[in-house]
């Protein structure tokens, strides 16, 4: 029997969570699901979904776009973003459709009355990492919880763009740090590692890929450093992954780190922080290298270790490919289907 799922993501922007939601939707389309997607008209996400054989419903607020016809005959609603849980709650209270929640951030859950009601009404909650699941348990120990990670997105690379990047950073060992420029993403740690390495290892160059409200402060912090380039937000990450020698991601907190999965999937070695869900992806010295959050000296040392040891680099890349087996979309989509079917059979 065909699965009928209503996905809800009301984010106005387009970041890793929306990319992951889109990837799951594409896989479910390939599996023959009948899908409805409720999305924010201001987000690029809704335009991407409109390219797929799905019914698309526009809603800029969780009070909007409710009705019995939206989920009539559907198995459940799948929530992918914080405000969307309230849309699912209202739809359930009005029309009885059950829902599950995928929680992607590692912040402690705020136990306000509406959030309490929304989580207690959920048939199941999924965390992307063991750390997120633990925080869900801490707030709501009676909830049915599961751990299902993000899946790596494969980006195309353009040979001409890769060649341009190589020319731009010719004769350099290119280290990339790709993320929204927010305080918790650890760009300050990368900049301090660059400061440590500038004099002793001028061949190592850092390309910071991203933008955000922390960028002016970060540019001030990096003032005078010649081994850092602020490249801005990129739409061609596949080419950057192909051109780089190493990826770093020294976050202070991280739900999982989908960009780490993408880098590993592209064949890059990765150095990242031992925080949040990152250790679910990176086993130290097996599928990457881990450092303690905020330790710029350890980051500099790890970069030097990989630069000077091609055998270690190859070993980490091999270990990463083995680790990624259980993160593939074919595997994670099946995990979700198992949850859907369990809920459906219990009704």
TrEMBL record:
Group of enzyme by EC: transferase
Output the CDD domains linked to this UniProt entry: GT4_PimA-like (cd03801)
Keywords, alphabetical: Glycosyltransferase, Transferase
**Glycosyltransferase subfamily 4-like N-terminal domain ranges (all copies):** 16-138
Q: Which InterPro entries match?
A: Glyco_trans_4-like_N (IPR028098), Glycosyltransferase_grp1 (IPR050194)
Q: Recorded E.C. number(s)?
A: 2.4.1.301
Q: Which domain of life is it from?
A: Bacteria
Gene Ontology molecular function: any one: glycosyltransferase activity
Name of the protein in its database record: Alpha-D-kanosaminyltransferase
From what organism does this protein derive? Vibrio palustris
Q: Which gene encodes it?
A: kanE
